[in-house]
Design goal:
Elements: E1 2-8, E2 16-20, E3 31-36, E4 39-49, E5 60-61, E6 64-65, H1 74-87, H2 91-98, E7 116-119, H3 121-125, H4 136-148, E8 150-152, H5 153-159, H6 163-173, E9 176-179, E10 190-193, E11 196-199, H7 207-214, H8 221-232, E12 238-244, H9 250-263, E13 267-271, H10 278-288, E14 294-297, H11 303-314, E15 320-323, E16 335-341, H12 358-369, E17 372-377, H13 382-389, E18 394-398, E19 410-415, E20 421-422, E21 425-426, H14 427-439, E22 442-446, E23 455-458, E24 475-477, E25 482-484, E26 491-493, E27 506-509, H15 513-523, E28 529-532, H16 542-551, E29 557-560, E30 573-578, H17 583-586, H18 592-604, E31 615-620, H19 626-632, H20 636-650, E32 657-665, H21 668-680, E33 689-690, E34 694-701, E35 704-713, H22 716-731, E36 738-743
Parallel strand pairs: 2-5, 12-17, 12-18, 13-15, 13-16, 14-15, 16-17, 19-31, 22-29, 22-30, 28-29, 30-31
Antiparallel strand pairs: 1-2, 1-4, 3-4, 3-6, 7-8, 7-9, 10-11, 20-21, 23-27, 24-25, 25-26, 32-35, 32-36, 33-35, 34-35
Helix pairs in contact: 1-2, 1-12, 8-9
The chain binds adenosine-5'-diphosphate and zinc ion (2 copies).
The site of one zinc ion has 8 residues, from loops.
């Protein structure tokens, strides 16, 4: 008999022993079904041992070994183990959560339907005329298969209602066969790259179109250098910071390096921060590599599609895996390159459960696999910039826009401490908008608050609308006549009078997207105005349709939130106005400035992408603030230097390493009491500082009170050693408090 040490999805930091017969063919990484308490659960064999510390009578046999997919490979196992150790999170939860949903279920996955079909030799030899003239669908199917080579299931279904039946008959005749060469991509039917219309399924790309895109671009000297540097160390671990302003051609560098990886039969993993950016990038990759199987992995795909793409990556068939942070844990046996685009983006960090940073774990994975890792950004995270400055990462710079005529936009600040504002807009901004309208060019007005106004206020007693479940304000949505909490989703009617003093004259205070839409509408009654925020894009196809309208120049003024800040390339856009940029300057969060800078650089990057020169106008009360001065000069290095000096003085990251112990309970006192106990049981002999427990910045969230305790250390090793010892003690505390460790926290 042998002992299997099985990882289970339970919040306990241990493996569980089960037995199997010696002759059973079981390997590490196999999925097994076991009984746990009164339930049956799926686990993954993490170790195989000769004996157990449990008495033999208590060891239960495994109930079943799943053979529906190959075992989890050592390569991915090592990464998950590292991740569990680094974040001090139970290994079982880390492993099971990294698996596609169907693989976590207690029954084997059904054999999936094939993704596509192709003709056999016999089918290829068959003439269309050999089929009866009235077999219209079959004739159409045969012709399409001959043209496309392989057709995706969905494409066949789209030919005609009976086409899927017809393909079955083809297979029965020996004319066609199943093919798994088609990876499933985003469900968007089509999406625009530049001014060309690109279908997203690789099978739909016509040869002519592919040719137009396939021939390699002439790289700029900076691009050439970057590509050469990365290729010079193709088979070794090295982190490259590809620092280049928006439009400098970073994506082109990825494409060129990936081309080499593909040529050598390797796999490339590309991580992007935003699901909204994946369709664009997917089509750009498809167009460049039309014959390569590419698998998307993000939350827009159904669980079945995700499993299929995951399996294609696991088998080595999918050579490019493109996805959001969850794609990090995809098994890729021939991994040769990892790209993290927009590496500074906070969405690479998961904010619940296992609070991992996909960017940092991408670096860890590259190290384990011995592959290069490219971190691309126009505004790198200060931690990354610091790592490059001390030589841990190597920096590659693309200093200019790739398209020679596309100059950087001119950035100006409008001092709103003096200027009179009409509903939040300064005369200078209004004039600039008018000029664009007259010239037939597009403008983007950027504001980071959706809804009508940030808050409802009583002018008499000072009452403001707040959420009773969160420490936040309720945002006014005037169209819907509702107040809404953007943190927990709570909604209520707008009260007719002040709940405190009865005053009937309540007024919305401040600016939101809806109010801006009204204001601009009355200022420019003939302009075509489009609001793009989370409310207006709730419907699945809404965003692609809106982007389409902007590209087609059917819109004059776009009102956008951060949803529009990233990645999109609008040719006619020449003006970006930023309505209120000052919030971050007051923030208690030491990363707020960094985020604001990145965001404004990104928004500014939307203007003047093509040959028309762009202008950016930022309304602020503090035009002389060093942050805005750096922005005007497009001086990220200068900004980073100032910020790093401040961080060093204050001993903030990257000059120290942090972890948070988070706790939440219905009463704040319960959470704080837990943290005080945790403080008391902290092991002493480590070189770390423990701060006192404090309520979180969002102290109330969805009815729970949240508090945390900060641990800080000068050395990463000391922090890790301390957390390891402390974590064990914390599991002993028990109690009704939900707690978790957050290593390298981004939110406080
Ligand atoms: P980034 O990823 O840095 O924002 P992209 O790679 O998207 O930049 O490039 C911006 C634009 O410049 C794209 O339209 C791209 O096709 C074009 N481009 C990139 N490299 C070159 C080049 N070497 N020559 C001409 N155009 C280029
Ligand atoms: Zn009042
Ligand atoms: Zn709330």
């Amino acid at each position: 008999m042998k002992i299997l040490r099985v990882a289970l999805d339970v919040p306990l930091d241990t493996l569980f022993d089960y037995s199997a017969a010696d002759q059973d063919d079981i390997a590490i990484g196999d999925r097994v079904l076991v009984s746990f308490g009164r339930r049956q659960m799926v686990g993954v064999v993490a170790e195989i041992a000769g004996h157990s510390d449990l008495s033999p009578g208590r060891i239960k046999p495994v109930l079943q070994v799943f053979r529906d997919t190959p075992p989890l490979a050592e390569e991915i196992f090592r990464l998950l183990r590292f991740c569990a150790d680094y974040y001090h999170h139970p290994l079982g939860e880390v492993i099971l959560n990294a698996l596609p949903v169907p693989l976590r279920q207690t029954r084997p996955v059904a054999r999936a339907k094939p993704t596509g079909y192709r003709l056999t030799e016999a089918g290829l030899a068959l003439e269309t005329d050999a089929l009866p003239a009235r077999a219209i669908v079959k004739r159409k199917l045969l012709k399409s298969l001959k043209q496309a080579g392989t057709l995706a299931r969905g494409d066949i279904a789209a030919l005609s209602q009976s086409a899927l039946q017809a393909i079955k008959e083809f297979i029965a005749q020996g004319w066609a066969e199943e093919s798994d060469d088609v990876a499933i991509s985003a469900p968007t039917p089509a999406c625009r790259v530049g001014t060309l219309f690109v279908p997203t399924r690789c099978t739909e790309i016509t040869p002519a179109w592919a040719q137009r895109r396939a021939h390699p671009t002439n790289l700029t000297p900076a691009q050439e250098q970057a590509v050469a540097a990365i290729l010079s160390g193709q088979d070794q671990f090295q982190v490259w910071l590809l620092y280049g302003i928006t439009g400098s051609g970073k994506t082109e560098v990825y494409l060129q390096v990936i081309a080499q990886v593909l040529q050598r039969g390797g796999q490339a993993l590309v991580l992007v921060p935003e699901i909204n950016l994946t369709p664009q990038l997917e089509s750009r990759f498809r167009a460049r590599f039309p014959d390569t199987c590419q698998a998307g992995l993000h939350s827009r795909l159904s669980t079945g599609e995700r499993l299929r793409n995951w399996s294609l990556a696991q088998s080595g068939q999918a050579q490019i895996v493109l996805g959001t942070r969850l794609a990090l844990f995809t098994p890729m046996p021939k991994l040769k390159l990892i790209v993290v685009d927009e590496e500074h983006d906070a969405s690479f960090k998961q904010q619940d459960g296992l609070r991992y940073s996909a960017r940092d774990m991408a670096v860890a994975r590259g190290k384990q696999a011995g592959t290069p890792v490219i971190l691309g950004s126009a505004t790198p995270a200060l931690e990354t910039w610091y790592n490059a400055s001390i030589g841990r990462y190597r920096m590659l710079e693309l200093p200019a826009r790739a398209v020679a005529e596309a100059a950087l936009p001119a950035i100006h600040c409008i001092d709103i401490s003096r200027a009179k504002l009409a509903d939040g807009l300064s005369d200078s901004l209004i004039d600039a908008l008018r000029v664009r309208l007259e010239r037939g060019e597009q403008s983007l007005v950027f504001i980071n608050r959706r809804g009508f106004a940030p808050v409802m206020r009583c002018g008499q007693c000072g009452w403001v609308s707040t959420c009773h479940r969160c420490s936040s304000r309720l945002v006014v949505h005037l169209r819907e006549k509702r107040l809404r909490c953007h943190h927990c989703g709570h909604e209520s009617r707008i009260p007719p009078t002040c709940p405190d003093c009865g005053n009937a004259d309540l007024a919305p205070l401040g600016q939101g997207t809806q109010r801006l839409e009204d204001t601009l509408g009355s200022l420019f009654p003939t302009a075509r105005i489009l609001r793009v925020d989370r409310d207006s894009t709730r419907r699945k196809q809404a965003l692609p349709e809106m982007l389409e309208r902007i590209h087609a120049a059917e819109v004059d003024i776009v009102i956008g939130t951060q949803l529009l800040a990233k990645g999109h390339d609008f040719k006619k856009l020449t003006l970006v106005g930023v309505v209120n940029a000052d919030g971050a300057l007051y923030s208690a969060d030491f990363r707020a400035s960094e985020r604001l800078f990145a965001q404004l650089m990104q928004v500014a990057g939307r203007a003047g992408r093509d040959t028309l020169p762009g202008e950016v106008l930022i309304q602020t009360q503090f035009p002389t603030h060093p942050q805005f001065q750096a922005l005007i000069k497009h001086d990220y290095p200068g900004f980073a230097e100032t910020m790093l000096t401040e961080r060093k003085q204050a001993e903030f990251p990257p000059y120290c390493h942090q972890a948070l112990l988070r706790a939440e309970a219905p009463q704040i006192e319960t959470a704080l009491a837990f943290l005080r106990k945790a403080q008391a049981v902290a092991p002493r002999d480590f070189d770390v500082s423990l701060f006192d427990p404090v309520p979180a910045q969002m102290a109330r969230l969805a009815g729970m009170e949240r508090a945390h305790l900060l641990v800080q250390a000068a050395s990463r090793g000391a922090l890790q050693a301390f957390l390891g010892a402390w974590n064990k003690a914390l599991f002993g505390l028990g109690g009704s408090v939900r707690w978790s460790l957050d290593v390298d926290p981004l939110e406080f």
